[in-house]
Design a protein that fits this description.
There is one protein chain. The protein is of the alpha+beta class. It folds into two domains: 47 residues, no CATH class; 172 residues, GOLD domain (Jelly Rolls, Sandwich), CATH 2.60.120. Helix content is 19%, strand content 33%. Helix 1 runs antiparallel to helix 2. The radius of gyration is 25 Å and the shape is globular.
C-alpha cells in the first residue's frame, strides 16, 4: 500500500499522522479554591473549603491563575482567629490545625510539573501518601509567621515535583499548622504536563481521506 501512494501521498499520510499524534498534549492545572464543593478539594474539619483570598493579609503571597487562599472557615484578617498549636521547645506536639486535600486525574503519565505551596503559618505536604515537604523542627516564630520552608510570604513557598507520575488519580495532602494564634490559610498552584497520545476519534474521521489517497495512488500506478 505504501508504494501505491507515491511521494505526495506518503507526505499526506505522514502529515496526517503527525497531526493525530500531537492532538493530545494535555496540561492539568491544580489550583486551591477552584472547587469549593468538597468534591475534588476538601478539608478534615468542615468538608468543603472556604475561599478567603478576598480577605487576604497584605503580606500573603498573591495567588495567580485562578488560585485562592483557602481555609476550613472564615479565618482571614478581622474574622475568626485561629488558636496556636502547642509548641514545646519549638517542636509541634499536637495535630495539624487542619489538613487540606486535593485530587487530580492524569489521563496519561506526566512528563513534567510543579506544585507550589504556601501556608499561614507552616505546612507539611504529602503526595499519594508520601511526604514531600516536612515541617521544620524546631519551629521558630518570625516577626509575622514561621521561620520554616513553607510559610505565607512570596519567597517562603516550596515546590513539589510532579514529573514521572503514572496515569490515574492522585491526591495531595497539606497538613497546616497555626503557631501564632491569628489568621490561617493555605494556597497552592501548579501545572502538570502529560504525555501526548494519538486521538482515536480523529483517526477514524480521517479514514475517508486515507482511502481517497490510496485510490488516487492506484489510479496513478495504472496510468
Amino acid at each position: 500500500m505504501w508504494n501505491l501512494l507515491g511521494n505526495s501521498g506518503r507526505q499526506v499520510i505522514v502529515l496526517l499522522g503527525f497531526g493525530i499524534a500531537a492532538a493530545r498534549a494535555d496540561v492539568i492545572a491544580i489550583r486551591s479554591g477552584s472547587d469549593l464543593t468538597g468534591t475534588t478539594e476538601w478539608n478534615n474539619r468542615t468538608g468543603a473549603d472556604v475561599a478567603i483570598d478576598v480577605y487576604a493579609e497584605p503580606i500573603w503571597k498573591a495567588p495567580v491563575g485562578g488560585a485562592k487562599w483557602i481555609s476550613y472557615g472564615l479565618t482571614g484578617p478581622g474574622q475568626n482567629s485561629v488558636a496556636s498549636t502547642i509548641l514545646v521547645e519549638g517542636v509541634v506536639t499536637g495535630p495539624p490545625t487542619a489538613s487540606f486535600y486535593a485530587t487530580f486525574f492524569l489521563p496519561n503519565p506526566s512528563v513534567s510539573g510543579q506544585l507550589h505551596v504556601w501556608a499561614d503559618d507552616t505546612a507539611a505536604v504529602f503526595l499519594d501518601g508520601i511526604m514531600r515537604i516536612d515541617i521544620t523542627s524546631p519551629i521558630a516564630r518570625a516577626t509575622y509567621c514561621a521561620q520554616a520552608p513553607v510559610s505565607y510570604t512570596p519567597e517562603m513557598g516550596r515546590s513539589v515535583d510532579l514529573s514521572g507520575l503514572g496515569a490515574g488519580l492522585h491526591t495531595v495532602e497539606i497538613q497546616a499548622w497555626q503557631i501564632w494564634g491569628d489568621t490561617f490559610g493555605v494556597l497552592y498552584e501548579g501545572n502538570v504536563s502529560v504525555a501526548a497520545v494519538p486521538e482515536p476519534a480523529g483517526f477514524f474521521l480521517l479514514l475517508p481521506v486515507v482511502a481517497g489517497v490510496i485510490a488516487w495512488g492506484k489510479r496513478r500506478s495504472r496510468v
